[in-house]
Amino acid sequence: MDSFSYYMPSRLIFGPGKLAELATTSYFPWEKALLVIGSGGAMRRSGTLARVQSLLASRGVAVLVYDKIKPNPEMDQVEEAARIAREADCDVVVGLGGGSTIDSAKSIAMLAKNPGRYWDYIMSGTGGRKIPVNGALPIVAITTTAGTGTESDPWTVQTNPQTREKIGWGTDCTYPTLSIVDPELMISLPPKQTAYTGMDAFFHSVEAYLATCHQPASDLLALDAVSRLTKWLPVAVADGSNIEARTSVAWANTEAGICESLSSCISHHSLEHALSAFYPAVAHGCGLTMLSVAYFGDVAERNPERFADLARAMGEDVDALADAERPFAFIKALEKLIAAAGLAGEKFSDYGVKKSDIPAMAQNALTAMGGLFACTPVKQEQADVERIFERAYR
After folding, report:
1. What is the biggest distance separating any 2 CA atoms in the chain, rounded to whole angstroms?
2. How far apart are CA 195 and CA 143, in angstroms?
3. pLDDT tens across 43-73, in order?
4. Which domains are seen in the chain, by residue range?
């Protein structure tokens, strides 16, 4: 067994109905919160924002609401919200919503305690590579989707629209201090968003299992998440009110986030970040899905190790196959899952993606999120990345 480190400091409160504990838990000692939500209005329309405000008010917490976070979040909003948090002397940042909102809450919490601009602290691409020596405000994550696993990892993804770079970053201070995962909050999520976010969680798990930095705990959680999502994501897409499906998908997502703390994504995410940096209308989970068959097919051809385990976790009878066929049982299972989640018809042309942009997107993937290539089980250069984009293009 190789050596590894294990650090996962976020406290999780998980289960249907657990949002109510926001009013009573002893793990919320703060007095003035910046409450971060998305710009789309879903938290207001569903009544979830009002409910969280009421729960916080019942324990005497003053709340300021920041409601400008985009689906593909950008650093300008992080900088504006951090300034508000500093000026109002907030002592905690609460992210309410999906991955974009909670990611942004992490970035805001860091920048609220450190000088300069947000991009000064980005560790790749054109980032300034500064260390946030002052840490971050405490972060509370209340997730209403099951996709990014951001409630149980330190990572936060933001886009710099000036440079068209979408870069993930994180450090010990950007782990949530407290996360509440209540599957009841996910019941109103529409089928397409359920599918997109669930596939994101699926790929986090798959990539963590394939990453060269995987370890025993991440392996265990990744395979369980893959199994759960294969079984329950199509059910949640078909019937969002099925609380058993929502709960299992939510736990798989949180498992996947823990995997991202203990292992890593691989370059599949680098390619998608480039795609949605160039075409922000592409939802992250959608972009990953459109790339996935071409991407994992390419990796399996060159390094088939561990793919049979993933296929087995998806319920495939791998042992009945010849050795050479076993890795590609995962690709077949992946195609079946994409279809069962209702995403088989998604294609680049729906979002105006131009073939002529492939070389630039490949270069962006290799630079903006180049660090993930070091964890990928095959060596990939410009020609390899272009080949995958070409294969995925429809």
Report:
1. 64
2. 16
3. 999 999 999 999 999 999 999 999 999 998 9
4. 11-186 (3.40.50.1970), 191-392 (1.20.1090.10)
